[in-house]
Amino acid sequence: MSASDVKKNAETKMGKSIETLKANLSKIRTGRASAGILDHVQVDYYGSMVPLSQVANLSVIDARTLSVQPWEKKMAQVIEKAIRESDLGLNPQSMGDLIRVPMPPLTEERRRELTKVVKSEGEDAKVAVRNLRRDANEQLKRLVKDKDISEDEERRAQDDVQKLTDRFVAEIDKLVSQKEAEIMTV
């Protein structure tokens, strides 16, 4: 393994941390309806728990309403119950074989709570990136110890890893501030 391999590996893993942050932020509810909000809702499908998207078609009707179209009519009540019991605070309404899920408007207090959740997600992502920086630096030290690279190469590689870390932390900050702005807009 060389110093460039360590840097590439660190960059790849930091990129995955950003992707995880984006996925986590997409699940946090804003005032607008988004089918991604129901991603983590699990439904009892013949004795096994499966994601809602595997038993129904999810779509956005308008800015404040989602529709859930079960593939089997008898699943409608189970899906409705699963959505109601999720931690999302949603109240689905059954209309025959179609379930409408209106998105209640967010209160000011709830918006502030959600921004705290967003900041927490951002902080977790930063910690992950910093841990990856530490791991990369330890690998570089090991390479110097094994005499695979010189101390000058190690120093340059550590500077590059720090620049990578700074770049990814800045991207995390940008994503968090965008999500906060999205939540606070009424």
Automatic annotation (TrEMBL):
<keyword id="KW-0963">Cytoplasm</keyword>
<dbReference type="InterPro" id="IPR002661">
    <property type="entry name" value="Ribosome_recyc_fac"/>
</dbReference>
<protein>
    <recommendedName>
        <fullName>Ribosome-recycling factor</fullName>
    </recommendedName>
</protein>
<keyword id="KW-0648">Protein biosynthesis</keyword>
<comment type="function">
    <text>Responsible for the release of ribosomes from messenger RNA at the termination of protein biosynthesis. May increase the efficiency of translation by recycling ribosomes from one round of translation to another.</text>
</comment>
<dbReference type="GO" id="GO:0043023">
    <property type="term" value="F:ribosomal large subunit binding"/>
</dbReference>
<dbReference type="InterPro" id="IPR036191">
    <property type="entry name" value="RRF_sf"/>
</dbReference>
<feature type="coiled-coil region">
    <location>
        <begin position="133"/>
        <end position="167"/>
    </location>
</feature>
<dbReference type="InterPro" id="IPR023584">
    <property type="entry name" value="Ribosome_recyc_fac_dom"/>
</dbReference>
<keyword id="KW-0175">Coiled coil</keyword>
<feature type="domain" description="Ribosome recycling factor">
    <location>
        <begin position="21"/>
        <end position="184"/>
    </location>
</feature>
<dbReference type="GO" id="GO:0002184">
    <property type="term" value="P:cytoplasmic translational termination"/>
</dbReference>
<dbReference type="GO" id="GO:0005829">
    <property type="term" value="C:cytosol"/>
</dbReference>
<comment type="similarity">
    <text>Belongs to the RRF family.</text>
</comment>
<dbReference type="Pfam" id="PF01765">
    <property type="entry name" value="RRF"/>
</dbReference>
